[in-house]
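Q: A reviewer asked whether we had any structural model of the full assembly, not just the individual parts. We don't, so I'm hoping you can provide one. Inputs are below.
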Amino acid sequence: MITAQLTYHEARTRAIGRELMANPDAIVIGPSLSLPFNPDDRLLERFPSQVLIPPYSELATAAAGVGAAIGGLRPLVALSTASFMYYAWPAIVNEAPLVRYLSGGGASAPVAFHVHSGSRRGGGPQHEHTPQAMLHGIPGLRVVAPGTPADVDAALHLALTGPDPVVIVDHVLLSEVRGTVPGNPADLGPSLLRSGSDALLVASSEMTQRALAAARALESEGLSVGVLNLPVLAPAPVAEVVSAASDYRIVAFVEESRAAGSLGAFLLASLLAHRPESISTALICTGDAPAPFALELLDRVVPTQGWIVAETRRLIERAS
Amino acid sequence: MTAATDWDRLLSPLLSARRFDETLLRSAGLVTGVFHVSIGMEATAAGLACVKAEGDIVMLGHRNHAHLVAIGSDPEALYREVLGRAGGAQQGRAGSMHLADASRGVPYTSAMLGGGAAVANGIALALARGGTGRLAFAFFGDGAMGEGIVYETFGLARAWHLPIVFVCESNAPAVERGRFAQLARAHGVAAVSVDGSSPRAAVRALSYAAAFARDGSGPHFVEATTAAWPGNATFIPKLERAFDVGRVANPPGDEFEAADPVRREAQALLSDGVPLDRLRALDAAISERMRRAFESAALAPPATGGVAHQDVWG
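A: Here is a predicted structure for the entire assembly that you could use as a starting point for your response.
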């Protein structure tokens, strides 16, 4: 494949197609990685023998993904809206990540679970969950949250070729984001998307895009803000964050999760343990409420560009 | 394992499973955690040993000792695991409830009710796509039949026409025989119900179900009902009685003895004309093997060191 400028959904469709073509044992359980209001990836039409449609039964379906992986297939279980994965929770948190450990090393379950997480604007409290904060502490699970077209390309390659169970925390609002996607899939890891001298924003998924937009807005005010994109949430990229933050006095973690139990809270604590005296830190997180339906209400719960701008400006002013 | 035509093809796995648990129970104080024995429920395990073909994959549950011993897993490695000693089947990370043996087609063991059955569907899918006539077995108890996961699992197995045999080992005295088979049928899965204290009946049922699934006819369910052994309800059971091969020719002392699958097979062999001395000799050899395996495991050092943090991420 060639290096290309693609939208996020084009990159996702290209990547899953590449993985399914490269390996006849790679399968998708579920009709599509798209949601009904997304551009359709037409997976079932393009790969009829590698796409299986289960009845509505998320738990049996996710568990079948675990077994299929043990049996040598490379399944990606498309669970659609993230909160649907709660029905499948036992398979995702208490079977797949334990197979290698419990088997004594003789077996493993490299299954991928794909979900659409986060606020899609208008989904309401039951359809706009961000379960990543409940997943990043599970030993044996890799949790990835792509923030760019290149990320989703690398994430699908990792999920369908790597050694471990992976949860891909996707985000509907990224669909039309454009970016450069390399010809060959890269390793998935942190990337400094923008450097700055006044503050660093650490973010993933849709919050990476909002942090970038906030940094651009702050630039017009004469403030220089960097953005570190963290597409891998677990195992937690502690060393990478500590290293990337070493040049900054102000570091804020922007996350579409409640602060309690968030990855940002853990990374912030790790950062403070390394540099207790020389740093100002903050969590820019979802408020302590479900995601409400009305957009004006939602914008009071999930961090917006304006919210990130205001919070970052306040941190910089307070530190100077 | 002995060949399928041998006279002891059932008695040998039955006695091995029984003596494994009895030997463990005599030193139950050495176990530092939870374990469950299979006593009185060995018929289906012995059936598995007879019916399982090369390449078949088996998912077990928390009550798994009999199945592993019956299909030939090394008893000393199992004892070491149950006792938390170095050299355990899974290096001390799993314990009794998660005993497994990937080399014998038991990749890992989920101790969640119905958890292994749901995973077994996916294994069956992988085997079916391999196109080799191999199948998956899933063993669980009557408790799993109360869990929603089992019914989702039946639905998926039926929708995808998977080569899988579900075996429900029911020791629930309050549930009439046939009830669980009825529930499986109601979810579109073919089902039979057998007396799970009869090893020969268990073999017939498992053979039938396996042939059905192997032929591509889809999933099959087997309900095997057994008596509840007086000691198996508690977390740390005690050995209340040991099997006595010398009493096989006598009338049963009580209801449990009458329903003891090891005794029933030994009796059937006597009726077939196998002399009691051959049964005694087989039992003596198996008992001695288990005793030695246990002693060696009990002398092994505890599982320690880095294995606690290995095999988490690959």
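A: Points you may want to mention in the reply: The radius of gyration of chain B is 19 Å. The interface with chain A takes residues 57, 59, 88-91, 93-94, 98, 100, 102-103, 107-110, 112, 115, 118-127, 129-130, 136, 148-149, 152-153, 155-156, 159-160, 310-314 of chain B (CB under 8 Å).
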